[in-house]
Write a structure and sequence with these properties.
- This protein is an alpha/beta fold.
- It contains six helices and twelve strands.
- The longest helix is centred in the middle third of the chain and has 33 residues, at 110-142.
């Protein structure tokens, strides 16, 4: 298992039998998940989360002292996803309003748990892209773009010199790449997108997808999904 792809979770449930059951399910069916802690007391779980980072919290609703929704309300800015685990289905609507990533009914089905883990992984990857984009934007603001030098690319037996400011985006086509310029011109090169990414790596370009490298100066809007 790639350690970087591991998903870290904690389990919060006041019933010891439910904690042990979830631990068993994860240990036997989710080998890329690490349980950082299991808590029968929501206040102890809150203290742990204030001092540690996890990808997801498996959270029961009906608990003494602090129920699941009160637990979530105690975090002004959540940096973890939430999966509700409960024996009751009447909390589904409120779970959606609380932006829970998933809702698992006890006893938890192994296939449902596997599907849930996939949602957690996707959510984690989306956050990773978002965080990298924000860091790139911050770096971009700090750079003096007037000092940007032209880059050279080979096309049709000749060398073309391009001002990075004129590039809107680059699109991958397997082992080839198309450069789209602001004047609507397209330049087809026999190089992978990785070639252009390396050429433009110290500038204001961001690989938003496996197939696209974009000029952040040309972006007019960035729409966050509700999961961010």
């Amino acid at each position: 298992i790639d350690l970087l792809s591991m998903i870290s979770v904690i389990i919060v449930d006041d019933e010891q039998s439910a904690l042990k059951s979830m631990q068993w399910e994860i240990a036997n069916f989710c080998d890329d998940v690490t349980i950082l802690g299991s808590f029968s007391n929501a206040l102890e779980a809150k203290k742990f989360l204030n001092e540690n980072t996890v990808d997801c919290v498996f959270l029961d609703i009906e608990m003494p002292e602090m129920d699941g929704f009160q637990f979530l309300d105690s975090f002004k800015n959540r940096n973890f996803s939430v999966v509700i685990t409960t024996a009751y289905d009447q909390y589904a609507i409120k779970a959606i309003k609380e932006k829970a990533l998933d809702y698992l009914l006890k006893p938890i089905d192994s296939d449902d748990l596997k599907s849930c883990i996939q949602k957690i992984r996707q959510h984690k990857e989306e956050h990773s892209i978002h965080d990298r984009l924000e860091r790139t934007l911050e770096t971009m603001v700090q750079k003096n773009q007037n000092q940007v030098k032209k880059i050279s690319v080979s096309c049709d037996g000749k060398i073309i010199f391009l001002n990075p400011d004129d590039i809107v985006y680059c699109e991958s086509d397997g082992n080839y790449c198309t450069i789209f310029l602001e004047n609507k011109e397209k330049i087809f090169i026999t190089q992978k997108l990785k070639f252009m990414e390396e050429k433009l790596q110290d500038l204001y370009f961001f690989r938003i997808h496996n197939s696209y490298l974009i000029n952040l100066n040309k972006v007019k809007e960035f729409h966050k999904s509700d999961d961010f």
